[in-house]
Amino acid sequence: MRLSHSLLVLGFALLASGCELMVAPEDDPTYIKTTELDNRVTRLERLVENEGLTTLLARVDALQKDTQELRAQVEEMKYEAEQSGDRQRQLYLDVDQRLQTIETAALRLTEDRSVLEGSALAAGQLPVPGGTDRANYQASFELLKQGRYDEAASALQQFMVAFPNSEYADNAQYWLAETHYVTQDYKTALKEFQVVLDRFPQSRKLPDALLKIGFCNYELQQWSGARDALSTVASRYPETTAARLANQRLERMSGEGI
Description:
Elements: H1 3-18, H2 29-116, H3 133-145, H4 149-162, H5 169-182, H6 186-199, H7 206-219, H8 223-236, H9 241-256
C-alpha cells in the first residue's frame, strides 16, 4: 500500500471529524503539504524502479568504451606489425642492393687490375668491362702512361665505340691520336688529331690537337700544312702553352729555311 494514499485518507478523516470550519482543499495547508509529500514519494518510487535500468545503461556504456579502446589497440598493433614488416623488407632490399654494389665494384676492380697489371687486352675489349665511361677512360689513359701504346689505342678505340657521347670522348679521341704520334705513325696520328677538330670544335683539347697537327705535318715534311696549323694555334690561343710551343716550332722552321 502506498504511503501517500494512507496519509491522504487520514487527513480527510481528521478534517471531517474535528473541524467545524470548512476550507477549500487548494487553500488547506494540510492538503497542500499532503499533496507535496505524495508527489515526492511518487518521484522516489520512480527512481527506485528505474535504478536497475540506470545501472544497466551505465554498464553498457562502460562496455562500449572498453570495446572501443580494445579495437583501437588492435588496430594500432596491426599497423605496427605491418610497418615492422615493411621496415624489414626495406632493410633486406637495402642490404641486398649494397652487397650487389660491393660485389660489382670488387669485380670491376679485379678486372681493372688484371688489365693494368700486365695481362693482355683482347681486341674489342674495354679495360673495365661493364664499367662506367669514366672508369674505362681512366684505365685507357693509364695504359698510355704505362707505355703500352698498342693496348691503349685499342682501349681508346673501343671506348669511342662504347661511349660516343661521353663527356670524356674528346679527350679519348685526342689520346688515341697521341698513341700513334708517340709511335711515330704520323700519318695515322694526323688523321686522328683532325677528328678532334671536326667532331669536338668546343673541346679544351683543340689548341693541343692543332699543335700536334702542325707537328705531324712537319714530320711528314708537309711544310705548308705545318705552318698553317702552327700559325693558327699562335693567333687563336696566344696565352696557351700550345701557342708557345707553336711559336718555337715556327722559329725553328724559319731557321731551317722551310
